[in-house]
Write a structure and sequence with these properties.
The chain is an alpha/beta fold. It has 13 helices and 13 strands.
Length: 355
């Protein structure tokens, strides 16, 4: 499908379990890609789905098959309601990431549920989805996938930093796009805020009141992942097997854990952004964590940190998956080997037609 303009719905569910992000956008190409966001919404998960998704890593194969079907139906319901409520018509394609429950590229495996072919029939729209599997089959990490969107939609920034369930970054180096995951962020911060009966640490105020534990900080910063070269990516497996065991060794107040982990996040980001006097676009839910941003600035005083308007902060990943789907329709590369480590650039995703 080669056109100059596409009406697209992008759908994203992140590891922080905030909910399902949906963006209705026009993507147009005239010497370069441009976008116009018309509607953005996050549909929060119910307690049932937060529980199901957070525990999905422990399910058996048969239980995962059942969850995949149920989640595909739930996702279809959310997308259909978004279309109906906003009276959206003339949709070229719905581009959906699904929800990652298993990510083990070192074992040649990644699973995003909600990507069954049935979704096209349920929402009565053509769908592009399941963007990561092909890259892993080509020897790549299957992540991160957003950097091609950074290159095509946000090229005016030297670095694009996303603070979601995990932090990830992308930038140009010697004519190639480089990108990788840096560290856990909201997967850990939200977990400890939940222990205090909160969905998240609003503006980082809980962490700000905590005390820094230097011994814990040193141990976190000593994890082998941080010394590995890119390409590299993170999933909940890393949090469960490496992060939580370290944190569980310390009998300290939750505020102190939050304070120390924020410092850990900021320190790891500072190790990656090495060019001075550059601009960094910050998106993702962590952009609202004022204390985290303050700690990042303390490590990078000569960097211009740019937090855009709320819609771009929250919708950027859904927006980029909308672009990935359109690139797939055009049979153009939407996944970069320089980012994922795959054997070649390629056009990833499955296309499911409704009629």
């Amino acid at each position: 499908m080669q056109k100059d303009s596409y009406s697209v719905i992008g759908v994203m569910s992140g590891t922080s379990l905030d909910g399902v992000d949906l963006v209705y956008v026009t993507l147009s190409f005239s010497s370069k890609w441009n976008f116009k966001i018309h509607i953005f919404e996050t549909v929060p998960y119910t307690e049932y789905w937060i529980s199901m998704l957070s525990n999905s890593i422990h399910l058996s194969n048969n239980e995962l098959l059942d969850l995949n079907l149920k989640y595909t139906e739930e996702l279809a319901k959310i997308i259909s309601e978004f279309i109906t409520k906003n009276e959206i018509q003339n949709i070229d394609i719905v581009c959906s990431h699904g929800h990652t429950v298993l990510h083990q590229p070192e074992n040649g495996f990644t699973l995003q549920i909600g990507n069954l072919s049935k979704i096209a029939e349920l929402i009565k729209q053509n769908v592009v989805c399941d963007f990561r599997v092909q890259d892993v089959q080509l020897g790549g990490q299957g992540a991160p996938l957003v950097p091609i969107g950074d290159r095509l939609l946000f090229s005016e920034y030297d670095y694009c930093l996303n603070l979601g369930g995990f932090s990830n970054i992308s930038f140009e180096e010697d004519g190639e796009r480089i990108a990788f995951d840096i560290s856990p962020v909201n997967t850990v911060l939200n977990f400890y805020a939940n222990q205090l009966g909160l969905n998240y640490d609003d503006k980082g105020n809980l962490a700000k009141k905590g005390l820094l534990n230097n011994e814990l900080l040193i141990e976190l910063n000593s994890l082998i992942f941080y010394e590995q070269s890119y390409p590299k990516s993170l999933g909940m497996e890393f949090v469960n097997s490496k992060i939580f065991p370290v944190l569980n060794k310390y009998s300290i107040p939750v505020n102190n854990i939050l304070r120390t982990f924020v410092e850990h996040i900021a320190f790891q980001i500072s190790k990656v952004i090495v060019k001075k006097n550059t601009s960094v676009l910050i998106t993702g839910g962590g952009a609202y964590n004022d204390f985290l941003i303050e700690r990042i600035k303390s490590y990078l005083p000569n960097i211009n940190l740019v937090i855009p308007n709320n819609i771009i902060v929250e919708s950027k990943e859904a927006l980029v998956f909308a672009l990935l789907g359109v690139l797939k329709l055009r049979n153009e590369n939407n996944t970069l080997a320089s980012v994922t480590g795959a054997r070649q650039n390629h056009s990833a995703g499955n296309v499911f037609t409704w009629k």
